[in-house]
Amino acid sequence: MQYPQQFDVIVIGGGHAGTEAALASARMGCATLLLTHNIETLGQMSCNPAIGGIGKSHLVKEIDALGGAMATATDLGGIQFRVLNARKGPAVRATRAQADRVLYKAAIREILENQPNLSIFQQAVDDLIIDNDQVLGAITNIGLRFMAKTVVLTAGTFLGGKIHIGLDNHSGGRAGDPPALALAQRLRERPFRVDRLKTGTPPRIDAKTVNFDGLEQQWGDDPAPVMSFVGRRDQHPRQVCCWITHTNERSHDIIRSGLDRSPMYTGVIEGIGPRYCPSIEDKVHRFADKTSHQVFIEPEGLNTHELYPNGISTSLPFDVQLDLVRSIKGFENAHMTRPGYAIEYDFFEPRDLKSSLETKFIDGLFFAGQINGTTGYEEAAAQGLLAGANAALKAQDKDAWCPRRDEAYIGVLVDDLITMGTKEPYRMFTSRAEYRLLLREDNADGRLTEKGRELGLVDDQRWAAFCEKREQIERERQRLASSWVQPNSAAADKLAPKLNKPLGHEYNLLELLKRPELGYGDVAHLLDDSVSVSEQVSEQVEIDVKYAGYIQRQNDEVEKLRRHEETPLPVDFDYTVIEGLSNEVKQKLIDTRPQTLAQASRIPGVTPAAVSLLLITLKKRG
Ligand code: FAD
To answer: Which keywords does this chain's UniProt record carry (predicted)?
Structure first.
């Protein structure tokens, strides 16, 4: 049967990518359908119940700046918040929250259910409706046909998902959920390049059976940071403690003794796992000289005794997992509530995508999330928002949008994927961004909210809050710039204990704030305290002033490269006829089919000389 309503956008999959995609499309005014296996698992965290961290919180703040849900759900579900790298430079500072997985999921579901233009339907999608390389809709497992102008696929780890515990394996999307086998098969019949990746999760532990005496406690920051630009500290639920324990030599012996029954070490698993989130057996094998590895013990929520032992992801057989767990301090009598496991799944070569995340082969079909070779909720959500927005733009006959590498980590993520592809699960790091100082988490709203508003992603309330903050920043800069301190004055005396040398002449407070020995608090102290300035505003003023020189330098570099960013390369460009290009470079260009000259220059192995040749050929073509 064909469903009576024609949608603008269909999103398949209600994970982190799918929920942001559906919300983005609906916010932009498109009639949107979210089709997912199970409404109860909307926004489910398959692994660690934590959001943010280095590189990842930058993505969360960008999603938030564009009106997305992840940061708000984190503020509503977060049970421990910390700022990582707090003493380092602002470019690498990152917010991380441990979340109550039930509260987080409930927050996402509430946001989805209250979103105008969005319908949700529970059913497995078994196939896409495609005609003449144009997507027209999706078919569910009971033969229901849903039609739409564009479709966003966000099937996560479910396509051909295979779960491994020791040498036992079975099909599954993640523990407790069915895989998407029919859809995986249909997609393999299409021209996409498909490969396998794997990821894993640790066993969970019953807190009632853990001896916490002597374990190191880890509390969140006080005051707790807030994830969303429009979030408030008083939205946070009760905050809890985490603990730290360690593996030991006995744990490592147990692991080594089980490697002959490990699916990874016996070749049963073929997919490559996340390098930066390795299993404990991988860590013990690769770092054989280390006698101990840290394990963070993180509560799964406020109303459960389950604990997540972060650091011992494993797919070893159950008996080895149990011995391993019980060899760890505090876990001597631990009861495991769920075994750890690895999962292998299909992913698609991301070089077959445009920067809008539309596939190059099927018009109107967008891919987002884990299926593009990434790992992590934040990476998935960021792609989801972008794909959802572009699916909506396409349905509205408008041009696609993708932020540049100097505008957003979302831009870095997408450009890395579509330019270089990936052979292992890709996760975000601040080191992946060449313009780190421009892409701070604190200024994500300044970089993106205006664009989000223009696209229709940002609602009136967020826009008003953003405009107010922007004005406050400007007012505060002016207040500092027009407040002067004379040498040998009472104000100068107040600053004297902090200054390296006494003031030689008069300075305004903005100039003084540039000095490394002074912080915003020191100079604000000299001002009329009837004006109250929020932390967000003072932080922004301080960073902009202190790093102005570096920021300017990065902006100059961006400007220099802008010409190449704006030089398009035709999709049908015949690289084989360019004289002087090596066959290797030609092949790389053919494999990637870059959209711009700048993207071509970022393909590993494409030299500056090759880029010059490309430019000359382009000019000749006219
Ligand atoms: P998912 O969150 O997987 O969501 C996919 C959604 O699509 C689900 O709701 C599913 O029901 C639905 N769906 C799929 N197929 C269909 C269909 N045919 N019809 C209808 N609905 C469908 N990330 C890390 O950063 N670190 C880790 O250590 C880590 N470990 C992990 C361990 C395991 C065991 C798993 C399963 C995942 C792990 N991840 C980890 C990855 C993290 O869970 C994903 O990166 C993230 O959830 C991806 O989001 P997504 O939206 O792309 O997909």
So the answer is: Cytoplasm, FAD, Flavoprotein, NAD, tRNA processing
